[in-house]
Every structure is written in C-alpha cells, then in structure tokens.
Amino acid sequence: FAGLPSLVEEDLKVAPENAPYRNKVLFDDTSFEAVNELVTSAGFADHAKLIRGFFIDTLPTLPETRYDFVNIDCDLYAPHIECLEYFYPKM
Ligand SMILES: C[S@@+](CC[C@H](N)C(=O)[O-])C[C@H]1O[C@@H](n2cnc3c(N)ncnc32)[C@H](O)[C@@H]1O
Questions:
Q1: Radius of gyration (Cα) for the chain, nearest Å?
Q2: pTM of this prediction?
Q3: Which range marks the domain in which residue 50 is found?
Q4: What is the pLDDT of residues 22-41, one digit of tens each?
Q5: Total domains present in the chain
Q6: Whose C-alpha lies nearest to ligand 1, atom 4?
Q7: 44: pLDDT confidence band, cut at 50, 70 and 90?
Q8: Ligand 1 geometric centre to CA of 65 (Å)
Q9: For 58-74, b where at least 16 C-beta lie within 10 A, e where not — what string?
C-alpha cells in the first residue's frame, strides 16, 4: 500500500532507461480499505488476509507453517530475495 520500496543496484542494472519506476514510486495509489473492499466484494474475504507493510517487517510476523504454493509478484530484486529466503525453506 506504500508502493514499491527503493530500487537497489540489481534493479537499476536491468531497468530500461525510460522505466517509470526509476524515478517515481509506483503502486502507492491505493489504500488498505479500497483493496479490502475489492476482496470482500469478490467473495474472498474468508480466504484472503491483507497484511499492510513491507515484507521485511511483515514476513516475520506470519504464523510458522508449511506452504504448498507461493506466488511472489513484487517486481524488485530485494523483496523477491526476502520472500524466497522466508518461504523456500517452508515449502
Ligand atoms: C506488480 S504489483 C503486483 C501486485 C499483485 N500481485 C497483483 O497482481 O495485483 C507489485 C506489488 O509488490 C509490492 N511490493 C514490492 N516490494 C514490496 C515489499 N518489499 N514489501 C511489500 N510489498 C512489496 C508493491 O507495492 C506492489 O503492490
């Protein structure tokens, strides 16, 4: 809900020169309430839990469990590494 975090060197190496996310925060034009409303109106309120915050802060707060499937879609290098390091040993 706060948009993409800062880019690191690995992101800048592969980002096209004119990529909008080089100079502008993307994905911050929403709110917890707006997403919650979409999830609820789509009938998924009982199957999805929204958690506000960056992975580095929120992943350690998740209950200890095993995962059969994880979809990671967070665009940038460092957040993918954070998610992979957290989830892969729990698969
Ligand atoms: C391309 S969007 C995809 C969102 C969703 N998977 C979808 O298809 O609608 C990437 C999302 O990753 C989130 N994101 C990127 N880095 C993050 C981080 N370190 N912690 C939490 N969210 C992050 C962004 O805020 C953005 O909402």
A1: 15
A2: 0.89
A3: 9-90
A4: 888 888 889 999 999 999 99
A5: 1
A6: 73
A7: very high
A8: 22
A9: ebeeeeeeeeeeeeeee
